[in-house]
């Protein structure tokens, strides 16, 4: 014998499941849209030591483990209200021991992008970036600091296998190798590189707290 109203349970459960799925999807979309709002963490001497995600940045503020020096204009909504996302945080009890590291030999795509401030060295675009050989490989060009620059897909395609003179193109600046030993201004973790790529460069809120990058000299 069926209990009265038993058949109504299934539609209700389906509705609950759909609501949970929709909520999860909304949370994923919010997470993706806020992925480019990372927090720059400074130690007690105002030296950049880390880049954290927006959720971690908010936690550091509310747990009173860091002093917020700059905020993004972006807010996050919660049941208790809206909160601005911290852009730059200083941890009062953290003193980072700076270790010099050899970066001249650490020639990589991310270091080329960082050296060129995530900007095409032909047209200043920050969209669809890739790496270009100034002297094409087919002409004997090598994978070196002096022969590699950041370029947008459009400029890279326009230049093709031509030299700068043949393509009638000019570089914004001459590509150079960094010093033999130096310190990167921003910790280049995979997370920070991804965030900088999403933002198409360094957040303006950070720039006051960053010394000029040695890769940009």
From TrEMBL:
<keyword id="KW-0472">Membrane</keyword>
<keyword id="KW-1133">Transmembrane helix</keyword>
<dbReference type="InterPro" id="IPR003615">
    <property type="entry name" value="HNH_nuc"/>
</dbReference>
<feature type="domain" description="HNH nuclease">
    <location>
        <begin position="107"/>
        <end position="157"/>
    </location>
</feature>
<protein>
    <recommendedName>
        <fullName>HNH nuclease domain-containing protein</fullName>
    </recommendedName>
</protein>
<keyword id="KW-0812">Transmembrane</keyword>
<dbReference type="InterPro" id="IPR029471">
    <property type="entry name" value="HNH_5"/>
</dbReference>
<dbReference type="InterPro" id="IPR052892">
    <property type="entry name" value="NA-targeting_endonuclease"/>
</dbReference>
<feature type="transmembrane region" description="Helical">
    <location>
        <begin position="21"/>
        <end position="42"/>
    </location>
</feature>
<dbReference type="Pfam" id="PF14279">
    <property type="entry name" value="HNH_5"/>
</dbReference>
């Amino acid at each position: 014998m069926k209990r009265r109203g038993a058949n109504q349970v299934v539609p209700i459960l389906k509705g609950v499941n759909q609501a949970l799925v929709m909520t999860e999807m909304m949370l994923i979309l919010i997470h993706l849209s806020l992925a480019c709002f990372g927090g720059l963490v400074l130690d007690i001497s105002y030296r950049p030591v880390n880049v954290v995600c927006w959720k971690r940045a908010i936690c550091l503020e509310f747990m009173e483990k860091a002093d917020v020096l700059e905020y993004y204009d972006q807010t996050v909504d919660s049941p208790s209200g809206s909160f601005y996302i911290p852009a730059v945080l200083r941890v009062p009890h953290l003193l980072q021991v700076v270790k010099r590291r050899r970066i001249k030999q650490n020639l990589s795509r991310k270091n080329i992008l960082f050296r060129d401030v995530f900007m095409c060295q032909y047209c200043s675009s920050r969209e669809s970036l890739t790496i270009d050989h100034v002297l094409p490989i087919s002409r004997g060009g090598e994978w070196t600091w002096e022969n590699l620059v950041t370029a947008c897909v459009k400029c890279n395609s326009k230049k093709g296998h031509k030299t700068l003179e043949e393509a009638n193109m000019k570089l914004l600046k001459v590509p150079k190798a960094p010093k033999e030993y130096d310190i990167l201004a921003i910790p280049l973790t995979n997370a920070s590189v991804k965030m900088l790529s999403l933002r198409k460069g360094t957040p303006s809120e950070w720039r006051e707290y960053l010394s000029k990058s040695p890769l940009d000299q």
